[in-house]
Specification:
2 copies of one chain form a homodimer. Chain A is built from 9 helices and 31 strands. In chain A, the strands form 9 sheets. Chain A has a 6-stranded antiparallel beta sheet, with helices on one face. In chain A, strands 1-8-7-3-4 form a 5-stranded mixed beta sheet. In chain A, strands 12-13-16-17-18 form a 5-stranded parallel beta sheet.
Chain lengths: 492, 492
C-alpha cells in the first residue's frame, strides 16, 4: 500500500485513499476480493476495496471520529492481504459538517448536528455531457440556491437527450456490447471529480443507481440480478467514502419492467449492507399513488428506506405521506419550470415556487428542475448548463427563510386550514399559497408578545406588521396570492 | 277533491295538484295517510299525499307520458279514500324537457333526450333570507350561467350567516322548541314558489335534505331517526312532482356526528322508495378522501346513488372517482372565488375557472360558489344576492363550448398528459390548465381533415389556426396558462 512513513492525517468525514498494486490477470473486477478493517478504539468498520484498472487496487475510508485509526487488509489475493497501517483523524475543516442524516420524522441534519434543509435540483445526465458543459453546470451551481442535485450514474436516452456519452460505467460500448463484469475506471474517476466539486460547493449528490431511460439502447435497465448486484457493490465501494453521497435506488422505478418489488428490496438491502457509513437511501416513483393507472407504491415504511423521494404534482399531500411513512418527505419531482410539450415540464416559475412553499409549510421539501426549450437541447433538468428561469431566486429566498427559522420547526395543525410550520410559542411560518384571504384570525398564545412580517414569496419582500401581537389577532392581508406570514416571539 | 267537470289538462312533466278537505283534528301530519294511484295504460304510479294545513290535504303528480291518466285515492281517512278522477297529459311546452337523468357513466340528459351539462352554483341559505334578497338572487340567476343551484332545506347557522329565518320546516321556533311531528306549510309554500321560479329560469334545484350547520342551535342535525324519516317522507311528497328537483341527502354528511353510514343508507333508500319519479340522488362529503383526517368516503357505488357529488380541491382526481364509482362526477365544492379568511373561500377567479375546465376536460363537472366579504355579509354562497366575481363570465364561456360540443363527448386517454374529451375522429377538446407548453404534438387520425382553434379560457377568445390538420401535427402555442385547443372535423 502506498503509505508514507510519516503518519497520514485525514480530517473527520474526509477521505483516506489507499492504493496498492495487485493481480491484473483474468478479471480483477470479479476475481479478487479486498476488504480492510478500520479500527478506532474498540470499534471496527469493514470497508470493501475495488480494482481501479492498471493493476492498482484501492480502498477508500471516511473516518467519523477524531483520533487514531488503524487498519489491516483482508484479501483473497495474498499480495493484498494483511497490509496494516494507521492514520490520525483530525477535526473537520470549515464547511465540512459530515454526511447528511435523518434527524427525525420531518428533518435532516449533518452529522455534526447542523440542520440541513434540502433544496434540491435535478440534472439527470449532466456528468455525461461535454467537459465544457459540465464546467458550465458547476459554474451555475456556484450561484444557485441548491444544496442537493439528483443525477444518474447510467447515461440517459430520452426526449431532448440523445447524445451518446463518451464514457460508460462498464467496459465496452453500444456497438460492441458491454461486459457487465468489468467496470470502466475512467468513467468513475471523472464522476468522482464531479463529486468532489459538488462537495466543495456544499451540494449533496443524490446518486440515481438505476433508471428506465434506456429501453434496449444500452441494456443497463435490464441487466440480470448478478450484474445489478456486482454494479451496486462496485459503486458503493468507490463512492461511499464521499460524505456528500446519497443513494437513490432508482428514478421512476415502476417504469422498469424488468424488475420486481423484491428486486428493489434486495438492492436496497445490498446497498445498506455494503455502505459502511449508512448514507441516505431512497427510491423515486414514476406514477403517482392516486393515478388511475398507478401501480402500488414502494412502501417507504420499509426499514432500509431513510426518507421518501416522491414524484407527485400535488405537494399538498405531504401530510398524507408523513402519516403513511413517518419519514422526511422530499418531493423530488413535482413538475419543472419550463415550456416543453410534456406536462411535467411546463409549469410557470410562480407555480414551481408555490410548490416549494406549499411543501415546506407542511413539513416537506419540494425539488426543482428546469425544462425550457433550448436550440441545442441544453436543458438543465437533463444536461445542466445554464438556468433561465425565475424560480431559483425565489427558492433562494425560501431557503433563507427556512434556514433562519429556529430548530425543531414542524407542522402545527392548530392553524387548521393554513399550512404552518413552527415551534409553538416561539415561531410560526404560515403560507397561504394560491389562497388570498382579505384578513386572517390567528390564535397566538396569550401573555406572549410576538412580531410578524408579511412575506411576499414572489416579490421576495418581508414587510413588518406594526405593533405587537398576542392572543387572538386579526391580521389584514393584501389579498393576493403567494403570501406567507412569519411570526416570532418579541425580544422585549 | 277539487276537480272540475271539464277534463283537466297537464303538460308532460308538469304538475297536477289535487286538494281536498280532510280531518284537521289531532295531528293530521302524523295521523292520516293518503296515497293516490295514477294509471296510464297498464302502468300504475303510487304517489303520497300530504297535509297542507287548514284542513286541506294535497296530492301532486308529475305525469311522464302524454295521453289519458286516471287516478284513485287510498287513505286511512274514509273522507279521503276512493276519490277518483282523470286528466289528459299534453305535450310539454317549450323549455320543458323533463327531469334530468343520468345518461351514462359520464353524462346527464333531460328525460326528453336533450343533453344536460351541469353548471352549478351554491347558495345554501338563499330561501331563508328576506323577500327582497331572494328577489335579487333570482334576478342575478336570470343572467348568470348556472343551470343548477345547491340549496338547503334547513336553515344554516355558520360564519357570515347568523340571521334567524322567519320560517322553518317544522312547527315551532327556537325559543319554544320545534314539534318534529308537525310541519310548517307556510315554509314549504314559499320554497315551492322558489322552485317554480327556478324552473322558469331552467335551473335545477339540488335540494340538500340534511346538513351539519346547526350544532344544537335548532337541533335539525340531531333529530331521531323517526323524525328524520317523517321529514323525508313529507318533503318528498310535497316536492317530488317538481321536475327540477334533485335530492342531495346531505352537505358535508361526515361532519354530522349524530348519524352513521347506515343512517345515510336508510335515508337514501327511503328517498328512493318515496319518490315515484326517481329524481337524482347524491350525498356530499366534507373531508377529502385523501385528507389525513378523512373519514371513509361514502361509497358512491351503492345502487341508490345516481351520481357523485364531491368536495375536493383537486378536480384533477376526477378520473380516480370515475374509476371507483363509474358514475357522473360533479365536484360541487372545489373552493369558491372570494376573499374570506377560510381556505375554501378565497381562490381567485382564474383558479375557479381553471378548476371548471380541468374537471370538464376529464369528463367531470365542477361547481361554482362566491365568497367575497360584504359589508352586510350578503355573500352569494350563503345568502345569494349579487355576484361580484370574474369567474361567472368565464364559466358561461365554458358552458357555451361544452354545449356546442357533439354528443357523446367523453375522456380520450390517447392524448395522455393533456386532459381531453371528445368523440374520436370527430371532435377533441384539450385543456392545458396551468401548463404552458411552447408547442404540442397532436396525433390525429390520418386521412381525415381537421380544423382547430386555440381557446383562451380566461380572455374568452377562440383563435382559429390557419390551414387544416391531419395525422401527426405540431401545434405552436402562445406559451401562457389557461389555454384549450378545440379540434373538429372539417366540413369539406
Amino acid at each position: 500500500m502506498v503509505h508514507s512513513e510519516q503518519e497520514q492525517q485525514v480530517e473527520r468525514w474526509g477521505m483516506l485513499e489507499l492504493a496498492c498494486p495487485g493481480p491484473a490477470a483474468g478479471n480483477p473486477f470479479a476475481d479478487c476480493e479486498l476488504f480492510a478493517d478500520f479500527r478506532h478504539g474498540g470499534r471496527t468498520v469493514r470497508v470493501r476495496g475495488f480494482y481501479d484498472g492498471g493493476g492498482v487496487y484501492k480502498l477508500r475510508f471516511m473516518p467519523d471520529a477524531v483520533g487514531e485509526w488503524s487498519f489491516v487488509t483482508r484479501s483473497s489475493s495474498p499480495e493484498l492481504d494483511g497490509i496494516a497501517g494507521s492514520f490520525r483523524c483530525t477535526q473537520p475543516s470549515p464547511g465540512n459538517r459530515g454526511p447528511v442524516r435523518v434527524r427525525d420524522e420531518y428533518r435532516f441534519a449533518y452529522e455534526d448536528g447542523t440542520p440541513y434543509v434540502p433544496v434540491g435540483t435535478t440534472c439527470y445526465a449532466w456528468t455525461h455531457q461535454s467537459e465544457a458543459l459540465q464546467r458550465q453546470t458547476l459554474d451555475t451551481l456556484r450561484s444557485a440556491p441548491f444544496n442537493k442535485i439528483r443525477m444518474c450514474l447510467f447515461p440517459k436516452k430520452y426526449s431532448f437527450n440523445s447524445v451518446e456519452p463518451d464514457l460508460f460505467p462498464f467496459s465496452g460500448n453500444r456497438e460492441a456490447g458491454f461486459d457487465w463484469s468489468r467496470f470502466n475506471p475512467a468513467y468513475f474517476s471523472r464522476l468522482e471529480e464531479r463529486l468532489r466539486e459538488l462537495q466543495e460547493l456544499g451540494i449533496e449528490a443524490d446518486l440515481i443507481l438505476f433508471h428506465p431511460y434506456d429501453k434496449g439502447h444500452w441494456g443497463f435497465d435490464a441487466m440480470d440480478s448478478e450484474a445489478d448486484d456486482r454494479y451496486v457493490r462496485y459503486v458503493v465501494s468507490r463512492l461511499a467514502a464521499f460524505r456528500n453521497v446519497w443513494w437513490s435506488l432508482a428514478n421512476e422505478y415502476d417504469f422498469m419492467k424488468a424488475k420486481t418489488m423484491s428486486d428493489w428490496d434486495r438492492l436496497f438491502r445490498l446497498v445498506q449492507q455494503e455502505d459502511p457509513y449508512g448514507h441516505l437511501r431512497s427510491i423515486h416513483n414514476g406514477t403517482g399513488m392516486y393515478d388511475p393507472e398507478s401501480v402500488v407504491m414502494y412502501d417507504h415504511a420499509k426499514p432500509w428506506v431513510t426518507h421518501c423521494s416522491i414524484q407527485h404534482w400535488d405537494v399538498n399531500l405531504t401530510p398524507v405521506w408523513h402519516r403513511l411513512y413517518r419519514k422526511p418527505i422530499v418531493i423530488d419531482e413535482c413538475c419543472y419550470e419550463g415550456n416543453v410539450p410534456q406536462r411535467w415540464g411546463n409549469i410557470t416559475a410562480e407555480e414551481m415556487t408555490r410548490r416549494f412553499w406549499d411543501a415546506a409549510a407542511r413539513g416537506g421539501y419540494a425539488g426543482h428542475g428546469e425544462t425550457y426549450l433550448h436550440p441545442e437541447d441544453e436543458i438543465w433538468w437533463a444536461k445542466g448548463g445554464r438556468l433561465y428561469g425565475d424560480s431559483p431566486a425565489r427558492i433562494a429566498f425560501l431557503r433563507r427563510v427556512l434556514e433562519a427559522a429556529p430548530e425543531g420547526c414542524r407542522p402545527i395543525p392548530a392553524f387548521r386550514d393554513v399550512p404552518t410550520i413552527g415551534v409553538p410559542g416561539e415561531y410560526y411560518l404560515l403560507y397561504f399559497g394560491i389562497h388570498r384571504p382579505a384578513y386572517r384570525m390567528i390564535e397566538l398564545p396569550p401573555d406572549v408578545s410576538f412580531q410578524a412580517e408579511i412575506l411576499d414569496t414572489w416579490e421576495m419582500t418581508a414587510t413588518p406588521l406594526e405593533g405587537r401581537l398576542t392572543g387572538s389577532c386579526r391580521i389584514e392581508l393584501p389579498g393576493k396570492p403567494y403570501l406567507a406570514l412569519r411570526i416570532y416571539r418579541s425580544e422585549a
